[in-house]
Amino acid sequence: MELTERTHLATATKPTEAKPTAAKPTATAPGAPTRGTGTKDADGMAVASFILGLLGLLVLNVFLGPIAIALASVALWRGTARRGRAFLGLGLGIADLLVLVAFMQFDSTVSWNF
What we know:
Shape: elongated
Number of helices: 4
Structural class: mainly alpha
């Protein structure tokens, strides 16, 4: 009777082995962006357009203004969750170009300086 109790205890406390499971195939290609990645990219573009538009008011507005406008447009087109920042980046990008035009009128040159 002692032998059967030992075998019963040995089988009851024996840890079960984990069976390997096969990976489920995905419907998208391995390198294709997912919906979450696209939204994160659009949110990043909205923030980048805001920062570049703000920075463009001070320096390099001939370059940073159009970049801010392009990033904000793409972020809005992709459906960003940060629409306010995208619109601010768009507005600041346009303001960059208007500041450039205003200073060009005062200096009569293609660039402006203090």
